Amino acid sequence: MKLTIFGRDVDIMRRPHGWEAVYVGNDGKKRRAEDILIPSHLAEQDIIGYVSDVCHEWASARYPRVERRDTKTR
Is the pTM of this model over 0.70? Predict the structure, then answer.
């Protein structure tokens, strides 16, 4: 799942140990988002609501929401 969390590009992937979040840089490089911890029991359809609650301090007038990047063109 590819998200833009209040202006920050983050990929969320299911791993054997649970969910993993990684920041995606402008150059395509990725680094683990150690500040975004998603409970392993959370269902995929609940992740946007969860990260919206956890990261709400990042919201601004320019970036007021969490959006999926992988479904925008569909």
Answer: yes
Assign 49 to helix, strand or coil: helix
Measure the CA–CA gap between 24 and 48, rounded to whole angstroms: 17
CA 30 vs. chain centroid, Å, equals 13
Burial track 51-66 (b if 16+ CB lie within 10 A, e otherwise): bbeebeeeeeeeeeeb
Written as one letter, the residue type at 62 is: R
Joined tokens for residue 27: 């150059």
- Annotate 8-44 with DSSP letters as a single string: EEEEEEEETTEEEEEEE-TTS-EEE-TT----TT--G
> pLDDT for 39-69, tens place per residue?
999 999 999 999 999 999 999 999 999 999 9
